[in-house]
Automatic annotation (TrEMBL):
Organism: Mycena venus
Pfam families, per the entry: Retrotran_gag_2 (PF14223)
Low complexity biased stretches: 207-223
Native organism taxonomy: Eukaryota, Fungi, Dikarya, Basidiomycota, Agaricomycotina
Region Disordered, annotated ranges: 191-223
Name of the protein: CCHC-type domain-containing protein
Amino acid sequence: MADSKGPVLTKDTSFPAWSSDAKAFLKFKEVYTWCHTSAPSPPNMEQSVAIDKCAGLLWGMLSKEVQPLVRQHEDNPKAMWEALGTLFAPKKAGARFNAYRTLTSIRLREGESLLSLTGRVSTAMRFLTESRPDGFDLAKADEELQAVVLLMALPDEDYSVLKAPFEQSKTDLSVTSIEEAYANHQAFRTAHQEGDTSQINPLSGLAMATSSPPSSSAMAATPPQQSSIICPGCGQPGHLLLSCFKFLNLIGKGGQNQKKGAAASSQVALN
């Protein structure tokens, strides 16, 4: 490897690919150990020089748009490396859902070689595996895969409101939470068509994406505490989307505007 500047990380760079190249570069410079080893207190002169060198090389591999995100760790290579992983490869269910979607959407491009296609698949798979937390076993993977398939099967144009909280979820995805969210979503749509949303349980399945979801083997879902609920419509705590006055008023205004538009069109046609 040439003695030059390492790979540069931008907001559009594939983080798994960059981290592999950056790791190889720092190993070549004989300082990578300080990306995963805490510095002794106090470090000796040789260790201090190596830590500073590692921090400088790592900082130099970050683009101007990425550097501000980890500026507080610019003198600590271990903290900087871990912060980059948290930012670009978070170990949460929402990140894994997006990784699944990326992995399953890969197609052979026109004129692309099989080697290039294999590389893209490998990169997407590495992003998926690196987004799994410690203790993520095969049983959890099986249940999450079922949940991901359920979410992906729901068309975005009809179920974007239902899917959005799960796509940002920090907790494990489960089939049970999606089934409950779907049931409440359908009930809300039916009630809205009939002009009555007062009978819908405000503690809907949409809350499951912002609280700990039950296991798919649970007999009944336990409603989360309202204090832990964040409404995805207005961002305020204590209530859910289906009981959000701001969201319901917005829908109501949209329906009224549609009726007014239809009436105006009819009047123009008559004239």
